[in-house]
Amino acid sequence: MEMYVAMFPMFAEMQEEFDKLLQAYPKEIFQALGMEPAQFTMAKLESFISVEHFSLVWPIVVIILVIAFGGAQIAGEIEKGTIETILAQPISRLKIFFGKYLAGVVSIIAFCAVSIFAVIPLAAIHGIDYKLENFWTMSILGFLFALAIFSLSMLASSIFSEKGKSNFTVGGIIIFMYVMNVISGFKENLKDLKYLSFFNYYDFSAAMLNNKIDSLTIWVFLGVSVVATILGAIWFIRRDVAV
Amino acid sequence: MTNIIEVTDLKKHFSSFGIKGRYLVKAVDGISFQVEKGEVFGFLGPNGAGKTTTIRCIMDFIRPTSGSIKIFNKDAHTKSVSLKKKIGYLPGNVQLHDKWTGQDHIDFIESLKGKSKDAKDLIKRFDFDPRRKFKHYSSGNKQKLGLILALMHEPKLLVMDEPTLGLDPILQNEVYEIFDELREKGHTIFVSSHNLPEVEKICDRVGIIKEGKLVGIEKVSSLGEKRLCKIIVRFDAEFKKADFEFDGVERIEELSDGLILTVRGDINPIVEKLAGYKLHDLEISHATLEDVFMEFYKGE
Prior knowledge:
By secondary structure, chain A is mainly α. Chain A is built from 14 helices and no strands. Chain A has one domain (2-6, 53-238). Helices cover 76% and strands 0% of the residues of chain A. By secondary structure, chain B is of the alpha/beta class. In chain B, β12 and β13 form a beta hairpin. The model of chain B has no long low-confidence stretch (mean pLDDT 89). The A-B interface holds A 80-82, 84-85, 87-92, 238, 240-243 and B 53, 56, 59-63, 80-85, 87, 89, 91, 93, 95-97, 105, 109, 112-113, 149.
């Protein structure tokens, strides 16, 4: 993050050359990344950070973290055998599930806070202007994106008894979603496939540049989270836990 | 007598997949037994007999295909949470969090079950160092921690899978003493074991399970009467096989320089007969638990 902020003034000075360079690229490249060329402007800190950080690096890190965390919560405990000691205590499976879910939510909040708001003090140190409200909006979008994937991961973790299977399944779903989002940009008759993808709703440039989250994004991420969490809890309550 | 555990026609079948497709595994197939208040009940059987599956059903980790389990006269599934306040559980293979210390685990269980009066005393009795991380403990120390966690709230019912696994003889005796103390207080112990001498030492009754079916429930005293011994004797000079063919000798196998005798019950007549010979080597061992069971139940 420090590197991005420190590099920003240099990129801002070279903005015009970058804009010309970007206009020379084929539009398919931008479609593959799910972005518009205008989003690549380097004139503002928010746009620079959104391109450099939130377009690829941040989602990859958050996806890996929440899938691994979710997989370890139940499937990992079953695989290792530690779940027996917890199940032997006077605590319901529902409380165990939501205790672990809550731990994940708190971790996601902490990660979003650190990884998104870390820009603010760094920008202040380097004397760069920033819009705090845009970072708030990005943190909400990032949280919802991470929460939806974490909820899927908790569902898979409730179903499987090995964290590798849980991680592999959710990782496969996320890769499928990414591919759907890319394919939807290539042909008109495939454009609706984007609605199957979280990456269609993860509009980081709208959040960072325009301080905006589409209401459909909120409904999709929250809806997936709620449904996956309820299914995960029911599955965990009903399943046999044999280590 | 009050029944603390009441298992009725318990069945647990699993679907499994193999080369020839899906098949059904009858891990437990219609077992019934009761464990009375204040008794130590041993649950015995060879590997894969269904002991651990039964324990997991009792602990509500897995749900029966059919049948019922009552603990303290309450359904083991629907009343699982309240029942576990009274149950101490030791798994067959103690697996805890690698990065937590022994004390972290004790604190965690206290956060769920309340402050323990006995934890410090148990730590002292087992000579256990709770400051180390779980991953740094030896298998014996892991077992000690498992025992402390199971015993620290003085449970009315103890459910234990191989409780003295990995413990040295001194600590094994410490565990037996604790069991005696609990029994004197009227607490009930359900213990699964392969170890016949241990079972004979601590249990009042045993249930014997084979291939998912309960083949018998016996008082330990009557099981001892049916004990089998294997005697391997090598002679320095010639010997007569016929000298050893008398009541109690179940089987005689010939070696080039000796005999293998399978003896049921009293071995003194054999020892007296052997005293008349000059021996090169003599080995007397208890038959395996499975041999005892198979011998005892072969007619059933």
